[in-house]
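Structural prep section.
Before we set up the soaks we want a predicted structure of the protein with coenzyme a persulfide in place, mainly to decide which crystallisation condition to try first. Input record follows.
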Amino acid sequence: MGDNTGSICHHTFLLQDTTMIRDQETLNGLLDTVARFVRERLIPNEELVSETDEIPEDIVTDMKNMGLFGLTIPEQFGGLELTMEEEVLTVFELCRASPVFRSLLGTTVGIGSQGILFDGTPEQQEKYLPRLATGELIASFALTEPEAGSDAASLRTTAVLDGDHYVVNGTKRFITNAPQAGIFTLMARTNPDIKGAGGISAFIVDANTPGISFGKRDKKMGQQGAHTCDVIFENCRVPAANLIGNKEGQGFKTAMKVLDKGRIHIAAVCVAAAERMLADALAYAMQRKQFGQRIADFQLVQAMLADCKTEIYAARSMVLDAARRRDDKLPVSTEASCAKLFASEMCGRVADRAVQIFGGAGYMSEYGIERFYRDVRLFRIYEGTTQIQQIVIARNMIREAE
Ligand code: COS
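Run finished without errors. Recording the tokens verbatim:
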């Protein structure tokens, strides 16, 4: 990275209290550094990334050097050990650039690593977390299958114990960062007699284990530069020592806990992307003239700007509240789903209005806003669709009232 971007010293993140912002000055330093990195390195490269479908290697190196792959990993394993509140504040800055940059580190910081952190044995944590924190290893989350998307508990990939290994067979689909992954957090069925969630276990699988192959890169609506593909397991022998927590039947719960946290993270991504799109739309509205005046002075355009601002503020408040609740060790399944549902739908509405404010230019690639419009469509789908969030929220409400 350029000298002016600065670097973050891990040792300055000393834990004072695990449930709150620990050191405002250090956090502000991190946020300023990320904001500058976004302005000077990421935004100028967005179009290149989209056109080439690759993030330049020097930017990946910068991200590693800044410690961004270790945001959520404990200090003892070389990470920054951010609280959830600190994490979402960092995401608010980072994701003002194309969401593709976050996607590369998002699975390592989030769904790919957190299962090891939440439920892994000390040996598993010691073995993998330090290399995840530096970005040496990219972690990927392998839950979804061709026949098991929203109905995650119906997954069919099997893991059969054979001596001191499990033999894994099955196909995982749309796996983010699979082509780059060093390890997978894999959910597979260890007990075929239990059809639902209770038969599922979670494993750490090294990507170079014999028996793993990859489908061709998926062609996607957006997010060029972030890669997904099928991951195929054929008689892949995974050491029994890699069963997360050394306990069968816990994998679905691990996945759900990981997703509870992941959904707050994605909601923060939505807020940041919406803020960026609104900033671009406002800037355009203030320079574009029609009928002899700038379009920002027309009340119908103002209504769109104001609705975006209001909804972003609401989503941002929800995300911060859910994050703080999690830091306070309160249950957040409902709040995480509420935040993910509202923020992702809000982001879609902001994207639509932003394109509308740009008018004809909004439909043209060179203005960038149509790329965001396509990129953010994913937020309403992955880490649980809007409809799954509705189900989670309503079920929790009923359960609490019973
Ligand atoms: N935290 C901890 N445990 C949880 C949990 C959570 N948030 N949610 C569910 N569980 C537990 C339940 O308590 C239950 O355990 P018991 O059997 O011991 O009671 C078990 O997990 C099964 O839960 P449930 O019966 O609710 O599972 P269902 O199959 O009915 O469905 C949904 C659960 C729909 C919520 C789940 O499948 C889901 O989230 N689907 C979307 C998956 C997804 O987000 N995919 C995106 C791919 S990753 S990018």
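Observations: The two ends are 55 Å apart (CA to CA).
Flagged for discussion at group meeting.
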